[in-house]
Design goal:
- By secondary structure, the protein is an alpha+beta fold.
- The chain has two domains: 3-61 and 276-428, Sandwich (Immunoglobulin-like), CATH 2.60.40; 81-267, Alpha-Beta Complex (Sulfite Oxidase, Chain A, domain 2), CATH 3.90.420.
- Helix content is 15%, strand content 26%.
- It has seven helices and 21 strands.
- It has helices spanning 3-18, 22-30, 50-60, 87-93, 128-138, 165-169, 201-205; strands at 101-106, 113-114, 126-127, 140-146, 156-164, 174-176, 180-185, 196-200, 215-220, 223-224, 234-236, 249-255, 278-283, 287-289, 294-301, 309-316, 334-335, 337-338, 377-384, 390-399, 421-428.
Length: 429
């Protein structure tokens, strides 16, 4: 399955996942309140355009905020992928909760020192019972998007739960000469299939106020991680691309080496960039009638720069960008509406309600402290109206909280894909 087919599948899954909960997902519409009667970005259309408003409401009703676990797009590795191993083999290699073990050791090729390494050989490796004991006082939950460095669409939006990695590292009592954390997932005991990543020790032991810790993740949307999602335990690194969030986690190595050892780095990727802000279409019409409104919907990935606007641009088909304006900065972009935080979060949560989430949700109101939230997604919508028949290119982009339009300030591939998406629309008389 190529990347385009995976993106198409994501859009279909987004709609299919909403179908059983269509009535409940209309609560997302109610959150818009009066703004949906004449939304800010749609105000240029005639007030009282009932047909357009009804179409827009129907389009929005397909959206659910949190992705069902089975609907995440999966980039699998290994032959076979570890989640496809027989149950007996999973139990044998530690991919079941009752047999899972996590080692935390010093790099034998550097001079890092630990007073209490956690090893299988000594019987001190962290097991499931030990992890759950830590979870009683240390567990954290946060919402964050999972996205691929080179992917067109987010892989899914989840509510993740786990124990901060720093609390486990301190169990090993590191003493000196530790600059980086290497970590590895199980991949069939075959070095050629190994998937590994790394982080600076500073990122693991500390995060800025309002940011979220790197966690040993064991739950998604309130349910235990399935093997397909990397269970029983995976790494989850908020704010960075999915190659950092290694599945089937089993081994952590503390090293004095200053270099990253990431698998993705050997594939000519930047493995230290934060997630970029960018917009993508979910639903657009292939054909519309001239002068008649048609809904468009999309998803915005909210990266390090935050999100202030989503915009769309209509041009005659194959209108070229000028040499001095390759990203259509001077074009007549129009504002879409960024949908507010939902009242029903989806994702299979009971009644669509969120549990307590320190740092993101106000416990008194149950609403996010800020919206959109960084390192998550936001849905957006608009009514498209084109008066003259013909063939058109429809583009979308974001503007971040610094006022910088996509794909700037980081337009380069290999550090996260954020090119301006383009689709075609035919306008008939």
């Amino acid at each position: 399955m190529n990347l385009y087919e995976k993106c198409v599948r994501f859009m279909k899954q987004t709609k299919q996942a909403a179908e059983p909960n269509r009535r409940r997902s209309h609560r997302y519409l109610y959150a818009l309140g009066a703004a949906l009667v004449i939304p800010a970005g749609i105000g240029a259309l005639q007030a009282g355009a009932d047909e357009g408003q009804a179409l827009l409401k129907e389009a929005i009703s397909h959206l659910q905020y949190l992705t069902m676990a089975n609907d995440f797009i999966t980039y699998g590795r290994g032959d076979p992928p570890p989640d496809q191993l027989a149950p007996e083999k999973k139990r044998e290699v530690g991919l079941m909760r009752e047999t899972w073990r996590l080692e935390v050791v010093a790099d034998s090729e550097s001079n890092s020192k630990l007073d209490n390494p956690l090893t299988r050989e000594a019987g001190t490796a962290l097991d499931w019972e030990g992890l759950m004991k830590l979870a009683e006082t240390k567990a954290v939950r946060f919402m964050t998007v999972l996205t691929c460095t080179n992917g067109n669409m987010p892989l899914g939006m989840g509510l993740w739960e786990g124990v901060p990695l720093k609390d486990v590292i301190w169990l090993a009592r590191p003493q000196e000469n530790v600059r980086r954390v290497y970590y590895y997932g199980y991949h069939n005991d075959d070095p050629k299939q190994r998937f590994q990543s790394s982080l600076p020790i500073g990122r693991v032991l500390e995060e800025p106020p309002g940011e979220y810790p790197v966690i040993l993740c064991y739950k998604l949307n309130g349910e235990w991680l399935t093997s397909k999602r990397g269970g029983p335990v995976r790494m989850l690194v908020p704010g960075q691309y999915g190659n950092k969030s290694v599945k089937w986690l089993q081994r952590i190595v503390l090293t004095n080496d200053y270099k990253a050892n990431d698998t993705y780095a050997t594939w000519n990727n930047d493995t230290v960039s934060q997630i970029k802000t960018c917009a993508r279409f979910i639903e657009t019409p292939k054909k519309i009638q001239a002068g008649k409104p048609a809904p468009i919907t999309g998803v915005a990935q909210v990266g390090m720069g935050g999100l202030s606007k989503v915009q769309y641009l209509v041009c005659r088909k194959d209108t070229p960008a000028s040499e001095d304006d390759p990203y259509f900065i001077r074009a007549a972009w129009q504002d879409a509406d960024i949908l507010p935080a939902p009242t029903h979060w989806g994702g299979g949560l009971p009644d669509g309600k969120l549990p307590s989430i320190p740092g993101q949700i106000d416990p008194k109101t149950g609403r996010p402290y800020r919206w959109p939230m960084r390192y998550t997604v936001a849905y957006w919508a608009a009514l498209l109206k084109i008066d003259k028949p013909g063939q058109y290119d429809l583009r979308c982009r974001t503007v971040d909280e610094n006022g910088i339009a996509q794909p700037m300030p980081r337009p380069f591939l290999k550090s996260g894909k954020n090119d301006i998406q383009k689709v075609q629309v035919i306008v008939e008389q």
